[in-house]
Specification:
It is a single chain. This protein is mainly alpha-helical. It folds into 2 domains: 55 residues, Orthogonal Bundle (Arc Repressor Mutant, subunit A); 134 residues, Tetracycline Repressor, domain 2 (Orthogonal Bundle), CATH 1.10.357. Helices cover 74% and strands 0% of the residues. The protein contains 10 helices and no strands.
């Protein structure tokens, strides 16, 4: 690959990343339905037509922005909890770090909470739109390992993964709605105690 081609690809990647970041910011502030593509382009400092070089339409932009944000977030969180030796500890720390990560950036939190819930038509158009898919797969793998380690009771991994992901989603949702009325550290600690006695006494 020539240097010129390498530089050109780098520029394309940078513009695409700028559009993804701009989309998250604008969608978070105005909502997907109230946003026009030109507004995203303006925040990304590119011409409106540039958006269509990377994304089919506004729906495709939302789809890819959400999917990529969640993949990147999970990658970062896995690195943060890698030091935990037991799978059951990784499970709890994933909840903690997930909530911490998104509450540090209100735009990311609002984007996730609000735009995750799209219309039936959107899901029909993008049947693979499941931003938590990788999370669920990872959580289920940790649950299976913790069951093998006998630090978790033999619950169904799928059911338990729904419960854990649901906890993360609801905590963030309530924080986005009214951050002043929710004490996340207190709730997180109580969730830990609930998981401790629900998954196996004294294991977390």
């Amino acid at each position: 690959m020539t240097l010129a081609k390498t530089n050109k690809n780098a520029v394309k990647a940078d513009k695409r990343k700028a559009l993804i970041d701009a989309a998250i910011e604008v969608f978070a502030e105005k909502g997907y339905s109230n946003t026009v593509v030109a507004e995203v382009a303006a925040v990304a400092n590119v011409a409106a037509g540039t958006v269509y070089l990377y994304f089919e339409n506004k729906e495709d932009l939302l789809y890819q922005a959400m999917q990529e944000m969640m993949r990147e977030t999970l990658f970062k969180l896995k690195k943060k909890i890698a030091k935990e030796e037991r799978a059951v500890d990784k499970l709890f720390q994933l909840i903690v770090k997930h909530v911490e990560f998104f509450t540090k950036d209100p735009n990311l939190a609002r984007f996730l909470v609000l735009e995750l819930r799209q219309s039936k038509e959107f899901y029909n158009r993008y049947p693979n739109f499941n931003p938590y898919a990788d999370y669920l797969e990872y959580v289920q793998s940790l649950i299976k390992q913790s069951i093998e380690d006998k630090t978790t009771l033999p619950y169904d991994p799928v059911s338990l993964s729904f419960l854990l992901i649901g906890v993360m989603d609801m905590m963030l949702t309530q924080w986005v709605i009214n951050p002043e009325k929710i004490n996340l550290p207190k709730i997180t600690d109580e969730v830990k105690q609930i998981l401790n006695y629900g998954m196996g006494p004294g294991q977390i």
